[in-house]
Structures are given as C-alpha cells and as structure tokens.
Amino acid sequence: MKVEEVRPQEAYGLTYEAAGVSIDAGEELVRRIKPLVRKTFSERVLTDIGGFGGLFDARFPDMKFPVLVSSTDGVGTKIKVAIEANKHDTVGQDLVNHCVNDILVCGARPLFFLDYFACGKLHVEVGESVISGFVKASQENGCALIGGETAEMPGMYAEDDYDLAGTIVGVVDRDRMFRRENVVAGDVLIGLPSTGLHTNGYSLARRALLERYPLDSKPAVLNGGTVADALLKVHRSYLDPISKLLERFEPGKDIHALSHITGGGIVGNTSRVLSDELELDINWNAWKRPAIFSLIQEAGMVPEEDMRRTFNLGIGLILLVPSSTSEAVEDALKNIGEKPVRIGHVVRK
Q1: Does residue 325 contact residue 254 with C-beta atoms inside 8 Å?
Q2: Given a cut of 70, is residue 9 above it in pLDDT?
Q3: Residues 207, 341: one domain?
Q4: For the whole model, what pTM was predicted?
Q5: pLDDT tens digit string along 272-328?
Q6: pLDDT value at position 11?
Q7: Cα 326 from Cα 267, distance rounded (Å)
C-alpha cells in the first residue's frame, strides 16, 4: 500500500483568519463583555456566559399558574443610521426595550434575554458598544442577559455592516394576562408618548430624509438637534409605568388590553387585540406629533395614509380601558410622570 506524503503545515496558505474570520477578535470581545453581562445576572441565573446554553431557575412559587411568554425581534434598518453616524450604544437598548414591550402587552415581566450579533468583520469596539446597550437596557428592565451569539460572516455582510436580533422570555400568572376577549365597544384608547420612531419605518425615513438632510444637519424644526440624534432616540420601555399601574388596577377588569405600536402603526397594531366585530375610532388630532415625523413627511412628500400605516406618530403604547376606569387610569399615569393622551375609542363595525 502506498502511503501518501503528509504535507507540512507551511504548505497550506489559507486560514480562517485569511478567509475573513478572526477567532482572536471573537475571544477578545467575550473577554471584554463578560464583566458587563454579569451585571445583569440575578440569583436565578445558573450559568456564566460562554456555555452552550443559558440556565435559569424556573420556579415561580408566588404564581398560581405561571405562563411563559416569548418574543423575537430586530431593529431593522435603524442599524444603518447607527453605522453611518458611528454611534452604536443605543441600538442594543432599542432591541431589548422593543422585546420587553412586546411581552408586556401580554401582561408579562421579562426574565431573560438572548442576543444575536452578526457582522461582516468583527470590530471589537463596535461589538462591545452594541452589547453595552443590551446590558444597560437589561439592567433597567430587571432582565438577565444570559446568552447570545456573535457571528462574523464575510461575504454575507459588508465589512462595516452588522445586524441584530433578540429573543426575550418573560412570565405572567394566567389570571393576570391581557386578553382580546376583554375588549368591548366603548373602551377608551389612552396613548403613552413614544420617544420618536422607536424601531420601525426606517427604510422610509432614510429614503425620505437622507437625500436632503445629512445625518449631522440641524433642520430648524429639530430645535438644535441633528437628524442623527432624532433618528437614534432610544425605543423606550413601558415596563415601569405599566408595572406601577398594575399595582393598583386589575388586568382584564380595569385595563382590558395593551397595544405596542410598531410596524403597521396605531391601527394595524391595536386591531390585533380586537375581535372581528370591533374597530377603532381614532382622533388623529388629539396629540402633537414629534417634529421628526413632520420632517419625514415634508421631505419625502409621504402621503398621510402611509405615515399612519408606517410610523407610531408619537404614540408608542396604547391602553384599552373601560370608560368607568379611564379617568382613574389617566390620573394614575399623570401621578407617575407620564403624559397620557385620550386618542379615541373602540366601536362596533
């Protein structure tokens, strides 16, 4: 039998590094973020980062019937604004807060979050900045960041591009869930302000604005702020005000449902918590839109219908409340520093 000669190591020219993936950069990023991520841990987190899976204590002795609630999302082309503005510490916050709000409207509080960070070339400082945003928002929401994945994918993404996705898991007692069956004609729609676009509509916003206004420009309507500042305002979490409300008001009885206003706008999202025989009567003049929306509409000559279907227009969360408790709910929100707006009603078709 002929034995093939084994070629020496130096005879091979291609390495993983030469193919565009740096294991060293990945290890350096993990080294940097470990102390940050540990700040989000509670006694219920049973593993450190770096394992094959995150472990979380799933005992809920204070609940009669705990229900796990999960959601996965991204931040869309808002990331392009972050890349072009070279500001990466807010999009991670956006992602966590978006996911928190999505399970909040089911009545759930967050337990833990996992992230996915994919890039064309791993720039450690950029990755660290993005993940610091995950950490900040996780701490603010009382949520553990128990795992994630960093993927360097040359050829899939341009060298400086990256993308994000996140998964959140929360819990709610079944008796305290918000259900669409509770919503009835006559319910009042109480809106809570957004901080801007949040994480939706950026493909339209970028197309409308950036051909006319550079990111560092300061249109008069923005009162001294730049276009980048307005577009990168952090998607706010509504966990704190809603949690305070639920200390006093019963979900399903005093507050019938919640709606997180994301892609699809006020009508598209709030209709998801209505039965088929109900619809919304919105007073679109009940609140003043943040200036960034007027700038987008003017710069791109965007039809009003598209504005309503694409953006939150300044209302980030809606409470659907029976008329009998609507004033008390509004007063309670004002007492904790919120600025609620009565924007309409639920009506029969």
Answers
A1: yes
A2: no
A3: yes
A4: 0.93
A5: 999 999 999 999 999 999 999 999 999 999 999 999 999 999 999 999 999 999 999
A6: 57
A7: 20
On the question of pLDDT at 5 being above 60, the answer is no
Pick the last residue of a domain from 176, 209, 236: 176
Half-sphere exposure of 239 (CA within 13 A, CB side): 23
Report d(CA 123, CA 29) in Å as an integer: 9
- Could you tell me if 99 and 228 lie in one domain? no
Q: How far is CA 106 from the centre of its chain?
A: 15
Domain count, the chain: 2
Give the residue among 232, 148, 164 at the shortest CA–CA distance from 198.
232
Sign for the CA dihedral angle at 84, 87, 91, 97 comes to negative
Dig out the tokens for 248 from the structure: 């006093």
Position 240 pLDDT exceeds 50? yes
Q: Are residues 148 and 72 in the same domain?
A: yes
Give the CATH number, domain containing residue 210: 3.90.650.10
Retrieve residue 293's tokens: 């929306």
Q: What is the largest CA-CA distance in the chain?
A: 91
Structure token pair of residue 186: 């006559």
Is residue 314 left, alpha or beta, with left meaning phi > 0 and alpha meaning psi from -120 to 50? left
Residue 129 sits in which domain range? 12-176
